[in-house]
Amino acid sequence: MQAGPKSASDPLSSDRRDAAWYVDKAVQVLVFVGGISAIILIIGIFAFILIQGVGFLASAFDLREFFGSPRWAPTSDHNTTYGALALIAGTASVTGLAMLVAVPFSLGAAIYIAEFATGRTREALKILVELLAAIPSVVWGFIGLSIMNPLIIHAFDVPVGLNVLNAGIILGLMAAPIMTTIAEDALKAVPDGYREAAEALGATRWQIVFRVVLPAARNGLVAAVLLGIGRGFGETMAVLMASGHSINLPTSPFDSVRALTATIAAELGETAVGSEHYQALFTLGCLLFLVTFVINLSADLIVRGVRRR
Amino acid sequence: MDSPAQAAQPSAAASGSKLAIRTQALNLWYDTFQALFDVDLDVKQGIITSLIGPSGCGKSTFLRSVNRINERLGYVRTTGRVDVLGHDIYAPSVELVQVRKHVGMVFQRPNPLPLSVRENILFGLRVHADGEQRLDRERQGQIVQEALEQVLLWDTVKDQLGEPALRLSLEQQQKLCIARLLPLKPSVLLMDEPCSALDPQATSAVEELIWELRGRYTILIVTHNMAQARRASDECIFMLMGKVIEHGATDEVFVTPEQQETANYIEGRYG
Ligand SMILES: Nc1ncnc2c1ncn2[C@@H]1O[C@H](COP(=O)(O)OP(=O)(O)OP(=O)(O)O)[C@@H](O)[C@H]1O
Ligand SMILES: [Mg+2]
Q: Is residue B35 part of a domain?
């Protein structure tokens, strides 16, 4: 390029610094900050939880006890133990049962909406599913307490109806709508040409669903289930209300259990900030964070894998 | 619909006089839009018939009403009669699944299923034999090999039978889409611009293959490519705005067309 004064009217010169230029720069910075805020928040939150819990991790934390003992007794006078096994088992059993409920429900709903329903029915169903997803979790907990509880007591003739079964069903119903939506997206993403090709070869609609569409949407469906599991692990209020909230290693669906999340929610307000108990709760928080993070991340990676193909 | 399959023996094909497809007063509407007007056509058995005409004239629509795949749209209405090898395929007692067994279709874009090469070929048999006893592996292997040999693909893909069909080249995919029809022993093959997504070399390879299949199957092929219609078909149908304008031996349609519109189109005046 030749050196020399640029004429003011040169349309290619970019050294004008008028108002528009500053607005442009400002918006650029704003968008950038917005874009990385998610990363900052994630790292920040994790750092916060970790720092709050680190005192416990460094002193009273005993790996064997934490993962091996079912005795969660942080306020015991003579023998404080921090065994998270029962809490982990509580969360896992409730989530597991929830998936037994939610997977068939949500897959069935997604298949019906994506492959069979047409026109108005489909639109109405999609709206309904989204409405279901918007029901606050405390309402679900309330249903668990006041409807499911007596129902279970009557139906199975057990003394308490607040147990794994109750919380699992409630959590399953809660997770089903979002799983339905994601599963339906996955089915919709299967190119219609596949269905047409299979139909032209003489496949019936069910054969198309089972032999072509479901296998082709496999990754998206797995992601839907993983996100449901993530939801189950993280859910607090409904589980707190429906599970019975008593520390137990469950041996049947009729045992009451206590979840990790519910433990934190119920106990954090009553501990002295910075105490060992307080720090132990944050360690539970770390565990939860890591588990849900890994589950969501893998769901996300799986979905991306689908897109790339 | 069992007899049509038997009727489709090569010996009958040689005579070239039996009818594979006969339509009478076929009208078709997409919702309120009429796409076919009183189509009366006799497509002879065992030969290649090409279907030409400007874009939007109803070639695909006609083709897709011969295996009733149009109906998947849900808003298509058809009147009139379509007989395939003497059987009215729109009769209430007819099972769609059987129609599709006898009338295979190849689409514009190669659309192998997201399965392995092998499973693509066996797919038709599997869906038709659902619930019945399974073919043993040896027999399956034979079927796969025969189908691939018929489309001149066996030598190139015999080591990739377990791989996803979507990994093949477009030409191979389109040949596979033809091959997967064959195990069902169809009598009619409908092809909707089967070469339009292929490069010239692949086009001539697939064209060659289609010519190779001549006599064993009745082939009705839509094409935009005049040269292709001319060199690779026995008879030719020209359509315009949902109507059949002319139908005759390809040479005659191209050299001495009876209708002015046909002449105009062939000379390239419609584009
Ligand atoms: N699914 C559909 N819904 C509504 N109208 C349609 C549909 N498919 C085709 N049509 C209309 O029907 C007419 C015939 O379409 P068709 O696809 O059969 O034409 P074609 O001759 O195959 O054209 P091309 O050479 O472009 O493939 C066109 O006017 C088209 O707009
Ligand atoms: Mg077309």
A: yes
**What's the sign of the alpha-carbon dihedral B69, B71, B75, B80?**
positive
Are residues A281 and A164 part of one domain? yes
Residue in chain B closest to A207 (alpha carbons) equals B127
Q: Is B112 on the interface with A (CB under 8 A)?
A: yes
Instruction: Specify the pTM.
Output: 0.83
Instruction: Give the residues surrounding ligand 1 with Cβ less than 6 Å away.
Output: B 30, 33, 35, 53, 55-61, 73, 224
**Which residues in chain B are contacts of A193 at CB distance < 8 A?**
107, 109, 111
Same domain, A20 and A147: no
Pair A168, A304 in one domain: yes
In a domain, B96, yes or no: yes
Chain-chain contact of B114 with A215 (C-beta, under 8 angstroms): yes
Sheet holding B235-240: strands in order across?
B103-106, B188-192, B218-222, B48-52, B235-240, B243-249
Q: Which domain holds residue A279?
A: 85-308
Expressed in angstroms, the distance from the first to the final Cα of chain B is 41
* Domain-located, residue B23: yes
Query: For a pLDDT cut of 90, what percent of chain B falls above it?
Result: 57
Lowest-confidence range among A234-238, B5-9, B120-124, B171-175? B5-9
Q: Does residue B181 lie within any of the structural domains?
A: no
* Euclidean distance between CA atoms B271 and B267, whole angstroms: 9
Percentage of residues in chain B having pLDDT higher than 70:
91
Q: Which atom of ligand 1 sits closest to the CA of residue B62? A: 18
